[in-house]
Amino acid sequence: MQNDNNIIIIGGGFAGVELAERLLRSNQKEHIILVDKNNYNFFPPLLYQVATGFLDVSNISYPFRKHFRDHSDFTFRMGELVEIKPNENKVVLNNGELSYSTLILATGTVSNYFGNENIKKNALPMKTISDAINLKNILLERLERASRTSSPEEKKKLTTFVVAGGGPTGVEIAGMLSELRKNILFKDYPELKDVLFEIYLLDGLPTILAPMSKASQKYATDSLKTMGVIIKLAQNVKDYFDEVVILADGTKIETANLIWTAGVTAEIFKGLPENSYGKGKRLITDGFNRVQGQNNIYAIGDTSIMTTDPAFPQGHPQLAQVAIQQAKLLSSNIIAVQKNQEQKTFVYNDKGSMAIIRRNRAVADLNGPIKHFNGFIAWLVWIFIHLMSLMNVRNKITTFLNWLNSYATKDQPLRMIIDPSKKNI
After folding, report:
1. Are the C-beta atoms of residues 39 and 50 closer than 8 Å to each other?
2. Which of 172, 191, 243, 254 is catalytic?
3. What is the four-CA torsion angle of 248, 250, 253, 256, rounded to 10 degrees?
4. Between the CA of residue 422 and those of 25, 134, 137, 141, 189, what are the distances in Å?
5. Which helix (H) or strand (E) is 296 found in, with range?
6. Rounded to 5 degrees, what are φ and ψ at 277?
7. Which of these, 129, 188, 266, 356, has the minimum number of CB atoms within 10 Å of its CB?
8. DSSP state of 57
9. CA angle centred on 132, ends 318 and 115, rounded to 5°
10. 80 annotated active-site
11. What is the strand order of the sheet 237-241 is part of?
């Protein structure tokens, strides 16, 4: 681990794990070191189900050390990247230094608050496992407060939910909240039977699910409206303080619960020049995912922006499939270099996109003979694809059983407030 013959992968998300697995299976010559600030991998597309109490954390997460324990040429290091020293082939972590022969950055993204400190301070993000647990605790604690307050104004604030961001995550959490409202909340909280439980979905664009087809956008919009979700489009959140969401047109929504899914940004790391970064702080890479101006530093997944793919001159969408496909090709190219073989440039195979809206309803856009479908069949396909994408058999089985129970009972007994900080919210 201390020698210089290390391939270091920073980040254990879709891209990082896929790359590590493929390099280890290929019997390549160098030692693999995976660095992540958590000791586990998790499945971001299902975070919203943890946040709303439909899945347990263990359903969508798995420890790195257990997953890679059978590989003698692998080391896991729990830590955060602080600085890169390209001239020394070293990375500085918050708990030490490591030397590398090849460095791959697969650090993903963080929530983007667009410079608004009030939103950053007061909104509820949903990017990490910690965010999802925190969101679940806070929402449940606020429902408890609402059930005992005598103030109608306070009760309304505590039971009004505003979701900022009309992408798949925003649509999915708005749909899940409406499922909670319809099937569960009034049973769990009979004290709140006369409360509206308003759910807003906001987006600055003129439509939700902007990257998807018009058919998917219309189906999702109509489905959410049928479920009672209030959709406000072409409306950015301008500010949020004193439990009031202020929109760009001056509209105000009183709520204690602003759930932020409105944007993401990559991270900037000390040691790489400013001109290495492009739009959204993403590292500019060539067709081999090599960072601009570097010989042995690569970036893959959401933290990379590649403009050499003819079909995506502005860079690829920040999707799991892009990250996985880039990891697959980079592993092949690393092996090719070791064998003095020719490398291949990356071309994204866009397989389409999906979004779940609610029970029995989802939308799918595909690049094939069938371009679009929705409803129950799309919902089943969404379930199958997400089950198969989980990290291991255990996660697949436990998630499936949880979903089966939820489908049969329209309920899920996972609404426990477990907050070690015991913070009074």
Report:
1. no
2. 172
3. 70
4. 45, 12, 10, 11, 22
5. none
6. -105, 140
7. 188
8. G
9. 60
10. no
11. 237-241, 244-247, 252-254
Section 238-256 average pLDDT: 96
List the end-to-end C-alpha distance of the chain, in Å, as a whole number: 45
| 3-class SS of residue 389 | helix
φ, ψ (nearest 5 deg) of residue 332: -65, -40
The residue written with tokens 């997460």 in the block is 61
> CB count, 10 Å around CB of 69?
11
Instruction: Please give the model's pTM, rounded to 2 decimal places.
Output: 0.92
Report the amino acid identity of residue 187: K
Reported as a single tens digit per residue, the pLDDT across 54-89 is 999 999 999 999 999 999 999 999 999 999 999 999
- Taking the C-alpha atoms of residue 107 and residue 339, their distance in angstroms, rounded to an integer, is 28
Encoded amino acid at 338, one letter: Q
DSSP 3-state of 248:
coil
Cα dihedral 376→378→382→388 (10° resolution):
100
Burial classification of residue 378, based on how many CB atoms lie within 10 Å of its CB (0-12 exposed, 13-18 middle, 19 or more buried): buried
Q: Where are the beta strands (DSSP E) in 100-251?
A: 102-105, 110-111, 124-125, 161-164, 199-202, 230-232, 237-241, 244-247
- pLDDT value at position 1? 46
The number of C-alpha atoms within 13 Å of 361 and in the hemisphere containing its C-beta is 20
Burial class (CB in 10 A: 0-12, 13-18, 19+), 133: middle
Average pLDDT over every residue of 298-315: 95
Q: Beta strands 124-125 and 252-254: pairing type?
A: unpaired
**How far, in Å, CA of 205 to CA of 341, rounded?**
46
Strand-pairing partners, residue 283, are 277, 304
Here the tokens at position 370 are: 């069938």
Confidence of residue 414 (pLDDT cuts 50, 70, 90): confident
**What tokens were used for 401?**
């059983």
* Ordered structural domains, the chain, with CATH: 6-37+79-109+266-338 (3.50.50.60), 117-264+360-409 (3.50.50.100)
